[in-house]
Structure formats: C-alpha cells, structure tokens
Amino acid sequence: MSIHHRTANLNNGPVRFIKREREAGKKSRMGQKKTALIYCENQFGLVDGKTAAALVRHSELYTIVGIIDSSLAGKDAGEELGGSDRGIPIFSNLDDALGKLSEVPDCYIYGKALLDAYISIEERSLILEAMENGMDIINGLHQFFSEDLEFAQMAAQNDIQIKDIRKPPRLKDLHVFTGQISKVNVPVIAVLGTDCACGKMTTAVELNETLNNLGIKSVLVATGQTSLMQGAMYGVSIDALISQFVIGEVENSVIEAFDNENPDIILVEGQSAVSHPAFMGSLGILKGSMADGIILQHPPARKFRCDFPDLPMPTIKSEIQLIETISDARVMAIALSHENLEDEEIQKIIPEYEKQFHLPTTDVLRHGCQKLVQALSDNFPKLNQKLKRENFIFFSDRQPRALNHLEGINEFVHAKNRNCLIPNTR
C-alpha cells in the first residue's frame, strides 16, 4: 500500500459537537474550560466507568471538579485510578457534591458506558435535579436525553442544554466511502485492541500528546463518545451510525484532519476488537482509515471478554494474524493495560512479549510512549527526520535526557528487525 495523497476539493463534514462547544467556550468564558461533575455510581475505576476515568485523566473541554460514586466517597479520583492526587473529590451523591463545591458546576456528565439501553429511575431523578440546579447535561449513551419529553421540558424551563454525544449527523451530512483517502500522504496509525475497554483510547491520547510535545504534529481522529467528550476535533461515534456509513465517516474524518491541519501523522482511535463477535467497529476503522500501521492494545490479565463472561479472550498472536490477514497494515507495537496487574508483573510481561512477538511493548500509563515513538520513527523516515534530539526525552520518568533517539536505546526492540517490516512508504 502506498502512502496516500490528498486532493484539495473535498467537502467539509458536518459540524461536530466539539467544534460548537469550543466556539461557545471562547465566546462565553474567553477560552476557559467549563466545570463538570461526573456521575459514575458504583463504576468509577472499573470497566464500565471508563468515560469518567478518561475525563479525569485528560480533558480539553472540561475542568472536572468531582465524581459521584458513593462506594468511593471521600477519596481522590486520581489516586483511585492509580495515579497521584488530582484534587478531584469523589462524592456520595449530588446533594453531597453541591453542598461541598464552592459553586454549581456548569455541566453534569453521565460518565458510565454501559451495555444497558436505558438509565434507571434513580439516575433520571439525579439528571432532573442537576437540570433544576442549572447544569447542562452531557450524555454519551445511545439513549438520547434530548428526545426524552420530560428531560426536554426541564431543560427548557431551566434554560440549559442537553448534549447527546452519540447522536449521529443528519442523513444528508453522512458520508459513504469514496477512495479519496488514497490521496493522504502522511502515516495513518490505528490503535486497535484485543477487546473492549482495554485502553485503546488512553494510549491514543497519550501518544498524540507525546508526539506533539516532541515537535511532531499529530492529530487524533475519535471514533467513540468519550474521546469526543475529551476534546478530539475530528471524528464521530461510529457505533451510533447506520452500518453503510461507518467506513465512509472514518474515511471522511481522516481526510478532514489531513486537509485542515496539515499534520505529520494521524492517529485513529480503535473500537472493540477485530475478532470480537459482538461488534464491527474495528473492521470499519481498518477499512475507512486504510491504516499504514497498527498499535495493538492488550490486557494480559483479562481472561474473558469485557461484559461477555462466556467468551474467552483471544491471544495477541491470533489478533495480529487476523488484522494482518484482512488489511495491508502491520502491527508495529504492543501497548498493555495493567488491569489487575502489579508493577512487577508488568515489568516481567513486557520483555516476555518483546521476545515472543519481536515488537516493542510498553504500558503507556506507567512507562510512557517512548517505545511507540521509536517504532514510528523506525518505520517512517519523515517522522524520524522531524524528531529533535534535544526534545526526545524519557517520558516514563519525565527526566529530560538529550540523546540521539536512534542510538543507545538498547531496551527498544526495533520494528525494522521484524520479518514483516512495515514499509516506509505505502
């Protein structure tokens, strides 16, 4: 596959939620983030609380002022995610939060990502109470709150907004695949996984930030509701689309990012897994993005697929074989989720995987993105040329060290040593 080039006469896609939100923020608060309280009862730090966890770790739109989860009340959200104190308290309920916060937050975010189609009666009451207190409602579920008569009436009475992140573009604004992505001439890297909720988005966000800090202009294309809430400028929640438009919307988002941003690289967030029998998202992402390379996310301690206790997890080997059979892209690195693993266990697994798969392997939350950056540098010479020696640092310990990033890094397993080398050009 050759690296694609782009034509200039493409139509812009629909205005995304994030663009409207940023523009509103500039006008109303001179660029300040809106404050937000996240509801995540009994799920914060667990798989179904991934939206809340992601927003605590990274948000370009919101300043998170608290989490609602009675099971963890009194604790700090950052510490509960295995990191440092972020000054984000966890409250027992909405009344507790409003009583202790210095002011009512701008937004109330539903921070759980459940398979259930509808919220409970108790959760409805909390949303209505939040609206009565003047808070905008941010919703990432398939259940659209703006189409709920009771919610819509309450929103009108209190002059607040309901934002359904998963609501798809209007039919006239949707795109089918055109093939114009073959014109994009920068690397497109998809961050796929072996399961749902295993850290694909987190790795994509961390890598995107790292690359930009190193002087590589990277743009992240979102494919799920959480990354759109975090502030991704391009993308759409693909699991809310009619299947005919999934591939076209992924393609269009990559083209938009390329056309508008003139990036050095485009990262595409993955969904679920290619091998997962319940979901089709990864196939649409592979086809629509025409990825030049894959970073594969995997939770080593997970025995069964998330929310499907009768479905055993696939092996990394089988997932790589499947991806590389149905696409021209090659897996170029492995990123791990330390879910249910101690530090010493991850430290042992990393070299074992590198020896077995001949791929650089890391856990970005514990060890940074060095190895992923190195893999990109090894496989795409233009990125290699743009990396500045003085800016290449060890992000895992955040201690600056000036060095030639192509020399003296013995712990890296270079992708160019693989039998299946990712081509330098498509």
Question: Would you identify the CATH H-level superfamily of the largest domain?
Answer: P-loop containing nucleotide triphosphate hydrolases
> What global shape is seen?
globular
The top level CATH class name of the largest domain: Alpha Beta
- The strand count comes to 15
Give a verbal description of the structure:
- By secondary structure, this protein is α/β, with parallel strands linked by helices.
- The protein has helices at 17-29, 50-57, 77-80, 94-100, 121-132, 149-158, 200-213, 225-230, 243-261, 281-289, 316-326, 343-357, 364-367, 370-379, 381-386; strands spanning 34-39, 62-68, 90-91, 107-110, 136-139, 162-164, 188-193, 218-222, 234-235, 265-269, 293-298, 304-305, 308-312, 330-336, 361-362.
- A seven-stranded parallel β-sheet has the order 9-8-10-7-11-14-15, sandwiched between helices. The protein has a six-stranded parallel β-sheet with strand order 3-2-1-4-5-6, sandwiched between helices. The chain has a two-stranded antiparallel sheet with strand order 12-13.
In short:
This protein has helices spanning 17-29, 50-57, 77-80, 94-100, 121-132, 149-158, 200-213, 225-230, 243-261, 281-289, 316-326, 343-357, 364-367, 370-379, 381-386; strands at 34-39, 62-68, 90-91, 107-110, 136-139, 162-164, 188-193, 218-222, 234-235, 265-269, 293-298, 304-305, 308-312, 330-336, 361-362. The protein is an alpha/beta fold and 426 residues long.
